[in-house]
Amino acid sequence: MAARLQVRVVPGAPRDAVDGVMADGRVKLRLRARAVEGAANAALVEFVAARLGVPRRAVRIASGAAARMKTLEVDGLDAAEARRRLLAEVPGGPAGRPGEGA
């Protein structure tokens, strides 16, 4: 079982954080790492793995390695559980923001 998550990454942010759900349903992630020599991608995998409680090796970038819009695959979780864990501490709960579905 592998969950697929659609995310938008904002590199060079003041802190690593989940910034809610965008209108298109993607989860917006802010990362301190800059988009230089794969640093932001490595930070993305580490951050998402920590938030989801899975090993880093369970998270991979399926598409968008050179773009801000990425698709992640996470082994060991279904999509609903992965999204719930990623959005667990975001205002509005697992749905991200009030009025938006998971």
Within CATH, the superfamily carries the name: YggU-like
With helices defined by DSSP (H or I, 4 residues minimum), what is the helix count? 2
Give the averaged pLDDT, no decimals: 90
Residues in helix, %: 10-25%
Name the shape in a single word: globular
Measured between the Cα atoms of the first and last residue, the distance is 19 Å
Describe the structure concisely for a colleague.
Helix content is 22%, strand content 29%. It has helices at 39-52, 79-86; strands spanning 2-10, 17-21, 27-30, 59-63, 69-75.
Describe the structure.
- A hairpin with a 5-residue loop joins strand 2 (17-21) and strand 3.
- Helices cover 22% and strands 29% of the residues.
- It has helices at residues 39-52, 79-86; strands spanning 2-10, 17-21, 27-30, 59-63, 69-75.
- It starts with a strand and ends in a 16-residue tail after the last helix.
- The chain has a 5-stranded mixed beta sheet with strand order 2-3-1-5-4.
- The protein has a single domain (2-90), classed as YggU-like (Conserved Hypothetical Protein Mth637, Chain: A, 2-Layer Sandwich), CATH 3.30.1200.
- The model is unreliable at 96-102 (pLDDT under 50).
- With 102 residues, it is an alpha+beta fold.
Name some characteristics of this structure.
single chain; 102 residues; alpha+beta; Conserved Hypothetical Protein Mth637, Chain: A; 5-stranded mixed sheet; 5 strands; 22% helix; globular; disordered C terminus
Q: Secondary-structure map with pairings?
A:
Layout: E1 2-10, E2 17-21, E3 27-30, H1 39-52, E4 59-63, E5 69-75, H2 79-86
Parallel strand pairs: 1-3
Antiparallel strand pairs: 1-5, 2-3, 4-5
